[in-house]
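Margin note: ligand = FE2/S2 (inorganic) cluster.
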Amino acid sequence: MSNTISVTLTVNGKRQTITAASDTPLLWVLREELKLTGTKFGCGVGQCGACTVHLNGEPTQSCLHALKDVNGKTVTTIEGLSPDSSHPLQKAWLVEQVPQCGYCQSGQIMRAAGLLKQNPRPTREQIVEYMSPNICRCGTYVRIASAIERAARETGAQS
Ligand code: FES
Ligand code: FES
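Resulting structure:
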């Protein structure tokens, strides 16, 4: 049985206080309370990656984190990845025309952003391994990998 609690967290740079059942998944807090619907519901059990966000800077499945466990934490969603959708990954996604139906793509980009943060020049093998928790029912995996490589190249070229 869950009780109602109030939790304060920072979402896309803004402090938010949420009052809801303590076991409410972060995914539903984002979508239902904060109307950040770029984060998608797929399986609800940590198996698809559609709900991937950054929690304290690390990519994770937001369906797996209960409200009671995110007090004081920092969350970044696809809406907060860049102020104007100009993150190198977002630009590379457009150039490579990655999405098909699009449903999994915000989760894919958030996971890819986590990869480039820890490894700015990943090999194709490292990309495939790191991205493996994120499923794409449309099979856009090759374009996802190409876009990550493009973003890595172009980020490197700027630095
Ligand atoms: S909805 Fe969270 S991993 Fe599938
Ligand atoms: S683009 Fe359709 S599920 Fe990935």
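Residues 41-44, 46-51, 61, 63 surround FE2/S2 (inorganic) cluster (ligand 1) (CB under 6 Å).
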